[in-house]
């Protein structure tokens, strides 16, 4: 019996992929840092029984039109807005993602981004490396305190709750806004539900961890930034499209808010001419929220498990509803 045809859209470690070659006829894009091109993806979609995709791969209606053998798309991410779910559903293709396994790692990074931005760690590192440190002074690289401040979390899902546990360790008061109340977070973390506007007005730190959807696109725009404290710091580790970057830039240069830390952007990758990179009060990271070796390996294994289960006719571990 022929092995199922599996196409992987990015070069993954051979020591992991090799574990599954007996079960699948594996075909893999040979580059780790270069995304698969559209022509190659289309070629393999016509033959594949399964796809293992990245968040950067656009799997739209046109791509899926020729997917006559495809049974499952395993997305190596929590998000799945790169996949046309309706078209997949119409063709009875199951889509899976990788929640849970990256929750704690992403929460670590998000809190690290908050600390780095508040305490000007990246700026201070560059300051000393460029030879500008001549002597100590009382307010040299003075930043903002984090402990016992108020943090407003927009998106109190798995990652939002994990981030809140870290904030609790710093004695922070936790406000949150979500599409539905998170009673468990309220009980465990003494988090307080707030309207979006109230959260913006009261928080010293505003952290966006909301998934991307039509109603979250650009939710952090001019109006939102003007409602925030002028001393507030904004952190985004969710989806770039949740933020109007032009509005954020103007909010920073007009001192409507104090600083920002960003792990995601509207269009990725950004180039070195991006306006936000010109501001010292902005910390920018290249979408590395879940980028630890251990977590990425767990994500890959979960993708393979989901593919194997679907092709055997069983329910996958983490289907996208």
TrEMBL record:
GO molecular function: oxidoreductase activity
Entry's EC annotation: 1.1.1.-
Domain of life: Bacteria
Domain D-isomer specific 2-hydroxyacid dehydrogenase catalytic: 8-320
Domain D-isomer specific 2-hydroxyacid dehydrogenase NAD-binding: 111-289
PANTHER family: 2-HYDROXYACID DEHYDROGENASE-RELATED, GLYOXYLATE_HYDROXYPYRUVATE REDUCTASE B
Protein name according to UniProt: D-glycerate dehydrogenase
Organism in which the protein naturally occurs: Aquibacillus rhizosphaerae
């Amino acid at each position: 019996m022929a092995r199922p045809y599996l196409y992987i859209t990015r070069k993954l470690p051979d020591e992991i992929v090799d574990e599954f070659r007996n079960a699948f006829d594996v075909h893999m894009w040979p580059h780790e840092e270069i995304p698969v091109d559209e022509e190659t993806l289309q070629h393999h979609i016509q033959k594949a029984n399964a796809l293992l995709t990245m968040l950067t791969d656009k799997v739209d209606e046109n791509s899926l039109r020729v997917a006559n053998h495809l049974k499952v798309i395993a997305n190596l991410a929590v998000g799945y807005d790169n996949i046309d779910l309706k078209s997949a559903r119409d063709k009875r293709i199951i889509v899976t993602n990788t929640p849970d396994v990256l929750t704690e790692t992403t929460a670590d990074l998000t809190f690290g981004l908050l600390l780095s931005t508040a305490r000007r760690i990246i700026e201070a590192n560059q300051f000393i490396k460029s030879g500008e440190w001549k002597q100590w002074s009382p307010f040299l690289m003075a930043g903002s305190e984090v402990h016992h401040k108020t943090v407003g979390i927009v998106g109190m899902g798995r990652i939002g709750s994990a981030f809140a546990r870290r904030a609790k360790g710093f004695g922070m008061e936790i406000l949150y806004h979500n599409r539905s109340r998170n009673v468990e977070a309220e009980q465990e973390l003494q988090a307080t539900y707030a309207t979006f506007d109230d959260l913006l007005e009261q928080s010293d730190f505003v952290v966006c961890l909301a998934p991307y959807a039509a109603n979250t696109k650009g939710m952090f725009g001019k109006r939102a930034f003007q409602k925030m404290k002028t001393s507030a710091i904004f952190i985004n580790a969710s989806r770039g499209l949740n933020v109007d970057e032009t509005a954020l830039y103007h909010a920073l240069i007009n001192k409507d808010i104090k600083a920002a830390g960003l792990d995601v952007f509207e269009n990725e990758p950004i180039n070195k001419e991006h306006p936000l990179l010109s501001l010292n009060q902005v910390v920018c990271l290249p979408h590395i929220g879940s980028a630890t070796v251990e977590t990425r390996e767990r994500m890959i294994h979960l993708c393979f498990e989901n593919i194997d289960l679907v092709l055997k006719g069983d329910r996958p571990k983490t289907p996208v509803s």
